[in-house]
Amino acid sequence: MIRPICRMGNPVLREIAKEISQEELKSESFRQLLIDLKDSMDHYGGIGIAAPQIGVSLKVAIIELEGPNRYGENSELPLTVFVNPEIEILTDENQGFWEGCLSVPGLRGFVERPSKIRVRFLNEKGEKQEILAQGFLATVVQHELDHLFGTLYVDRIKDPKLLSFQDEYEKFLQEKG
Ligand code: NI
Question: Which of 44, 60, 165, 177 has its CA 20 to 30 A from that of 125?
């Protein structure tokens, strides 16, 4: 079911989401939550979505990234469910991308994040998983998982001048990204 998106200002986006137990993972309500996340992500045209964005303060996010993306980078990820994820940063090097968010509609902002990470998490069956991500995918994963810890991309914009409305971004800034 397509659910309404909670937007910046809604306190649920600022909570640290609750870890999901193995028991909850097997529940019908969790199965339905995954369906709602996927339906909502597809409907609103996201490449990822986290449970707090549909008002559910649980540590689960999904990402589906088909490459090559608008940055010409080939970073693909088939539909992946991240339950109780933990990120390990693998480099001192940062990379910057213009980010957008379903919870901050109509805007884009330039955010620098570590360019290489490892993520440990459980999949939808409760099995332990580990992935390495770099480039645009590393940014997407960090953006989505930030949602589980009460952080929005706007919090990470170093230069507030690099926050823009989407249409002005397309007109003036896109090439510089
Ligand atoms: Ni977001």
Answer: 44
